[in-house]
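haha ok so turns out i had the wrong file open the whole time. this is the CORRECT one, sorry everyone. sequence first:
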Amino acid sequence: EYMGHSTRMSKAPFSTESLLRMRIVGKTEAMPTTQVDVAGLEKNLAAARVKFEAAKTAHVEALLARKRARASVEEAEAAVEALQATLKELGGGVEHMLEQLAEAERVCAAQKQQLSDAARKVETATEAVSEAEAAVAGLEREPRGFVSVASLPQPARVIRPDDPIAHTRCATRLNVYVNADGVCVRADFG
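then structure:
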């Protein structure tokens, strides 16, 4: 039985999409009796994807802020260098130029602090993206339900990670690719 109806006798076209994220239960395994809260799982996955997208957006914004801060630092450093060169040309005793130089150095220091803050924000945003991506990946590994190998349309083969695969083609054979947890990640005929 597959998802509440028999597939053995049915001649209706089989949808490989219907197997995605289903836990494939081997012939020697007992079929789980617990029901999967598919709606809850899908809701959590959707929320995790939204959080992932928001984290990616924040990451891009932090990268742009860091770029702007870096440009401001470069501009402030150029102003300091220009004022130092002018002072050197004019010689000492130019009070107004010294005040401008002190102000330019203060601005440069403030811009460097902003760059440092922006760099920390980029680092935090990068970590948030990684965490959100891991949460999405974890939820995507959760099975939506269970399917016994015996209920699959025959001929069928279940291919686990690291299984050697014979490359013989059979247009009617169902190939079910599962992850290490036995959850279908891909299915096709051939």
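Residues 1-12 have pLDDT under 50 and may be disordered.
again sry for the mixup
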